[in-house]
Amino acid sequence: MHASVSDPNLPLVRRLEAVGFRAWPASSVLYDGSWQVRLTGSHPSKRLNCVVALDPSDHRDIALRIEKAGRRFEAHGRPLLFRQTPLSPKLLIDHLAAEGWECFEEVVTMTCDLTTLELPDTMDHLPTHDIGRFVDADITVHETDPALKPALAEIITSIKPPTGLFVIEDPETGPVAATLCVQDNDLAGLMSLAVRPDKRGNGIGVEILSTALRWARMRGARTAWLQVVSDNEPALALYAKMGFTEAYRYHYWRKKAGA
């Protein structure tokens, strides 16, 4: 099992959270104090539809603020989710637990020093500028609902920092891997990396990851980051092999049915 960081670097957490928001932007972002309320009616991604508290000391009027957020999520037809990071107030988490909420899905945020990483001197795959092509590839390799294509295209179009869209294709069977790399000054975020299930274990993951990291480093990025669900052992092994180490973890909270 991947060892958890017991004492995360809070300034680093704050910075990675900030670039993460820019790398995967919600269509609606409001603030209640330091609580960020993220909603995206067109896409069900948990990262795009959750409340994230960004100050450990901001724990006033917890019950009232949860109720207020709940009404907003209900209006958007979304279940109210809280995303717990090392920046979340302890009193908020204690309140959720006491009120019958359940914690689910642990995600590991990892970083890698690009200045010391050994990468090929050449890029085998140049980024595409065709968002439609990339979205089709992403949906194929993730095996997600094609109906989400317009929403995913809208999300990618709304990313403000420079973004590289990478696709590896087989001439006969189509897309086999895809990822996007968002370069935000000296930080580069790897998003939505996946290899088609029937093509895994053939080095394609290393190939597309190396290409994206090389692109980011050529543009001045010094540190790469990514997020992966903690029970995805093959992905964790791949990222560790590439030099990534854990920075912190986050979890989601939802109201138990009937609670």
UniProtKB/TrEMBL annotation:
Gene3D superfamilies: 3.40.630.30
CDD domains: NAT_SF (cd04301)
Keyword terms of this UniProt record: Acyltransferase, Transferase
Domain of life: Bacteria
Entry-linked Pfam families: Acetyltransf_1
Entry GO MF terms: acyltransferase activity, transferring groups other than amino-acyl groups
Domain named N-acetyltransferase: residues: 121-259
PANTHER family on file: AMINOALKYLPHOSPHONATE N-ACETYLTRANSFERASE-RELATED-RELATED (PTHR43877)
Protein name: GNAT family N-acetyltransferase
Organism: Rhizobium glycinendophyticum
